[in-house]
Amino acid sequence: MVYLTKKIAAVLILIIGLAACQKTPVKYNDKIPPKILWAWEREEDLRFLDADKIGVAFHAQTIFLQGDEVVLKPRRQPLQVNENTYLIAVTRIETSKQTRPNLSKKQLTETNDLILKTLQLKNVKALQIDFDAVVSERDFYRKLLKDLRPQAAKEIPLTITALGSWCMSDNWLADLPIDEAVPMLFDMGTEDKSVKSFLASNKDWNEPLCRTSYGLSINQPVDYKFLPDRRFYYFSSNSWKPENLSQIR
Question: What is the pTM of this model?
Answer without folding.
Answer: 0.87
